Amino acid sequence: MRILAILSISATLLLAENSGGDLLQCNQIFEQKKSQLEKEIRKELEVEDTSTLFECNKIFEQRKGELVLELDRIKSEEESLSTLKEETNILLQKKRLKVEKWEKEVEEKLSETKEREAHIEKLTEENKKLLEEIEKLKMDKVSTTYSKMKAKSAAKIIAEMPSKDALKIILNIKPKTLANIFAKMKPQKASELTRLLAQSENAKEEN
Predict the structure, then answer these.
(1) What would the mean pLDDT of 5-21 be, rounded to a whole number?
(2) CB 196 within 8 A of CB 163
(3) How far apart are CA 171 and CA 83, in angstroms?
């Protein structure tokens, strides 16, 4: 459109020259055409500016909508993450309390178990001592019985016993009485019991 207007002005000037018109008239025509051209150019620019502005506004509105949707999505994700974080913290707190309660119960059970073990060990030791005392009293009584028997009779019975049981009896018989019993016993058996008796006495001295 601008090119056509310029060509129109040029053609007008040529016509003026060929028609022999004066310079003033040519200038007037030129100014008119120039003014007309400026108006047309200004109008065209306004249309172009309006069109460009419309396109920019359209693109902006489109991008604005996309940005709003993106912001909403981000906000929704933040809310979801915040909710998840709160739920996780609550769950962890419950787990922590449960673990602390369990640890406390375990410690209490261990403490009770240790107390029971200590009590059982004490009772076991007391029972052991009591059994030893009972065994000693029994052996003392048995030894006293053998001490009152005739040496020959006592030797016969003791010789037929297992060496371990015989040792328990002769440990509580007085040396003089025991010598008389050994004298009535076969030498081999008497020697064996004497050896066991000596080992037992040595063990007592070491302890």
Answers:
(1) 47
(2) yes
(3) 85
